[in-house]
Design a protein that fits this description.
Helix content is 74%, strand content 0%. The protein has five helices and no strands. The protein starts with a helix and ends with a helix.
Length: 118
């Protein structure tokens, strides 16, 4: 019993001191990565988010909102790739930006709720 208690005490002491030693390491300064294409897509997403449903149909507004959600997820994935040392996917970002612009245009050109009822 004494040997088990001594062993547990030793393991606990080692775990405590190693945790303290690891916690005392100064944090690394983050590296600033320039992402002009991704920043451009983020600006387009912000522009899309400013659209209000207003008199547009729920379907048209819903399609725009779904595209915004997909674009936000795409930005999150690209950001994760870049922060882990990957590069910006210029072609994919341009494609997502084009999809978002198309969704904005379709929303803006969609009929209004009262136009459908008449």
């Amino acid at each position: 019993m004494k040997k088990i208690l001594a062993l547990l005490g030793t393991v606990g002491l080692i775990a405590t001191t190693s945790t303290t030693a690891i916690a005392c390491v100064p944090p690394k300064t983050p590296k600033i990565i320039k992402t002009p294409n991704l920043d451009s897509l983020k600006a387009e997403i912000a522009k899309a988010k400013k659209n209000q449903q207003g008199l547009k149909t729920f379907t048209a507004f819903s399609k725009l909102q779904q595209t915004i959600i997909i674009a936000d997820f795409f930005v999150a994935v690209q950001t994760a790739i870049i922060t882990r040392g990957g590069e910006e996917s210029k072609d994919e970002i341009a494609e997502m930006k084009a999809i978002l612009k198309t969704a904005i245009e379709e929303f803006n050109n969609s009929p209004q709720e009262n136009d459908i009822l008449i």
